[in-house]
Design goal:
heterodimer, A: mainly beta, 6-stranded mixed beta sheet, B: mainly beta, 7-stranded mixed beta sheet, 4-stranded antiparallel beta sheet, about 0% helix, about 50% strand
Chain lengths: ~120, ~110
């Protein structure tokens, strides 16, 4: 079974600065997907960024980028130019790539990191 | 494009009762999953439905059951409620394709007393 570990329960960063959230995972699979989700007080999980394991290039979405180290099974999220609206719980998640179209598409989540933005 | 909507937003039930939670998938999505998120924890996978059939289940007892309807909306039913069932229940939908992310609803907060 796959596991996802987020070792930073809480992080804080000054507004406009850069912060990195850590995530490690354990799997014996070679093909999979990794995601970062943001959960603000509204409770809705919002997809921040995703990475396909077979792609060596790190994913980037505007101010959000990842450092994907497949051999080390590490998937960190870097937030540049932090904004007050970035304050939320951030969850790292793993999803297997099914061998056929009927495979299970469940997400395995870490325990989350609470990010606080200091004005 | 509509998102995922869940109802009700909050619910209080007594131990031993039964509860039904509802979810309307995002337009065009054909797969729905349910997750339980205990306070201070990450979501835990309950089960997934595709084409109205369950095609994956997490480590939850049979008293957690579900349905997916032809319009891809879904229900989560929990029988014989226990205090530990108190949690946020999240519904997520997707279009079944390789690597697609999920669209989540805002959840139903269930409190069992």
């Amino acid at each position: 079974a796959q596991t996802v570990t987020q070792s930073q329960p809480e992080m804080s960063v000054q507004e406009a600065e850069t912060v990195t959230l850590s995530c490690t995972y354990d799997t014996s699979e070679s093909d999979y997907y990794l995601f970062w989700y943001k959960q603000p007080p509204s409770r809705q999980m919002i997809l921040v960024i995703r990475q396909e394991a077979y792609k060596q290039q790190n994913a980037t979405e505007n101010r959000f980028s990842v450092n994907f180290q497949k051999a080390a099974k590490s998937f960190s999220l870097k937030i540049s130019d932090s904004q007050l609206g970035d304050a939320a719980m951030y969850f790292c998640a793993y999803r297997s790539a099914p061998v056929n179209s009927f495979g299970n598409e469940k997400l395995t989540f870490g325990t989350g990191t609470r990010l606080t933005i200091i004005p | 494009e509509t998102g995922v909507t869940q109802s009700p937003t909050h619910l209080i039930k007594t131990r031993g009762q039964q509860v039904t939670l509802r979810c309307s998938s995002q337009s065009g999505h054909n797969t729905v999953s349910w997750y339980q998120q205990a306070l201070g924890q990450g979501p835990q996978f309950i089960f997934q439905y595709y084409r109205e059939e369950e095609n994956g289940r997490g480590n939850f007892p049979p008293r957690f059951s579900g349905l997916q309807f032809p319009n891809y909306s879904s229900e989560l039913n929990v029988n014989a409620l226990e205090l530990d069932d108190s949690a946020l229940y999240l519904c997520a939908s997707s279009f079944r394709a390789r690597g697609n992310g999920y669209t989540f609803g805002s959840g139903t907060r269930l409190t069992v007393v």
